[in-house]
Amino acid sequence: MASKAESIKLFSLATPQMRAFHLAWLAFFACFFAWFACAPLMPVIKGEFGLTPAQIANINIAAVAITIIVRMVVGPMCDRFGPRKAHTALLLLGAIPVFGVAAAQTYESFLFFRLLIGAIGASFVVTQYHTSVMFGPRVVGTANAATAGWGNAGGGATQALMPLILAAILMLGVSETMGWRLALIVPGVLMVIVGVLYWKFTQDCPQGNYDALRKAGIEIEGGKKGGWASFKQAAANYRVWLLFLTYGACFGVELFIHNVAAVYYVDQFGLNLKQAGLAAGSFGLLALFARALGGYVSDRMALRGSLNARVSLLFVLMLGEGAGLIWFAHADTATLAIFAMLSFGLCVHMACGATYALVPFIDRKALGGVTGIIGAGGNVGAVAAGFLLKGVGSTQQTLAILGYLVAATALCAIALRFSASTNAEHALAAA
């Protein structure tokens, strides 16, 4: 019977594990691209609807708010229905509000569709679940971090590409009012294409699809049928909530930066739309390697030490992120701000990878629930940052406050430490 892969054959599509690996990151990339496609165009959309700062804050909060609920739901649904069905449904149904936001005529309708688009952020949970059931302990951290990181790169790609797509459309003689709407159709089409590919070329786990395995009486990893039982078991584990907080402090900050970076560079340093998009995009494109690096380093440290080595790495990265955020907030030139952003961005992405390198070891019997709850923590962090910005009224001050809060959250990482017996069990499984 097929088993979990103990190596990552990057240039192969011959095995179900590697097909899941590549389509998982591609699906998350498409979703992330669509999720934040509006952000780099906000200076144009702001003028279209005459948006106030408070309304822009509401849009930024809406973009990440509903993802909290959907991530918590879709994790257990992966246990119940399998990641293949969950991801395909998310891609195809999620494309509908992406097309809808392009047709919005008022602030209220734009806000409504922006809220619904947030649901596709749950793609991350399915991505992490799928690689967690496909890869073994030696490489699961790297697999999780690489797929999430390359998917997250969709956030950087959208910051850089959407202004260019808009510019290309405008060169054809289309008005700016119609141009940004046509540009937003592109990510929706991409989601539909990837959804079809996911259904056609993936399976739920190395042994096959969950429905067929259950009918054959074969036990699926975790043993449970998923749903509410998976969620309840995960919610009873204190380590889940500690990682919920750390993920809120790293991925939540990442989402917040994606939402505000372009406008911040325009308002604070006077960059034009293309320059601001490229500057903001460089932060997201760090995900191409930095998140995978976090998972890889975590895997290597665990092989030489224990699960607690993974914990120590996360603690150091969280401290680095907090210090870098404070530096970014106090940068007084665009050049220095970009350098500071890339510095703390490296820690942000690596911390995200290090977090999900720990996830498969928290509770194997409730993997979907664990993955979903911790993933939702990232969006809780982003929503909290959005409300903080709305209350403070200054992006610069908000960034500084976030820096101190992130550094304090590093203490949650230290509180994760595992017992000697758990470390011994992990060492045996990885041998």
From TrEMBL:
Residue runs in coiled coils: none
Alphabetical list of Gene3D superfamilies matching this protein: MFS general substrate transporter like domains (1.20.1250.20)
Gene Ontology molecular function terms on file: nitrate transmembrane transporter activity
InterPro entries: MFS, MFS_dom, MFS_trans_sf, NO3_transporter
Keywords of this entry: Membrane, Nitrate assimilation, Transmembrane, Transmembrane helix
Major facilitator superfamily (MFS) profile domain ranges (all copies): 20-421
Protein name: NNP family nitrate/nitrite transporter-like MFS transporter
Transmembrane segments: 21-42, 54-74, 86-104, 110-129, 150-172, 178-199, 240-266, 278-297, 309-330, 336-359, 366-389, 401-420
Membrane topology: Multi-pass membrane protein
Subcellular location as annotated: Membrane
Originating organism: Pseudoduganella lurida
A biological process term (GO) from this entry: nitrate assimilation
The family this protein is said to belong to: Belongs to the major facilitator superfamily. Nitrate/nitrite porter (TC 2.A.1.8) family.
A single Gene Ontology CC term: membrane
